[in-house]
Amino acid sequence: MATDYDAPRKTEDDSESIEALKERVPDKTSGSIDNEDADNPSGFELPGADLSDIDLDVVVLPPQEDEFTCMNCFLVKHRSQIAEESGSGFICLECAA
What we know:
4 strands, elongated, 3 helices, two-stranded antiparallel sheet, alpha+beta
């Protein structure tokens, strides 16, 4: 027997009304708070929050033998990216283009 794959398929789940489906979906505008978010309030960072009292541990490496700092964009790049040498230092390929 041949099957028409383009024909609409009716299942028992399709018989539910739109109102019944809306009841199963939680309302996003309700005032309920997700329990996972309520358990960890310190995990949120607000934009513009004062973070001056937080110390960050950052390891700064000295320039490596195969690196240079572009005098135009001030990015550290590999020596293979040198396009030209100016009086003050090296210029990378991207800045020279």
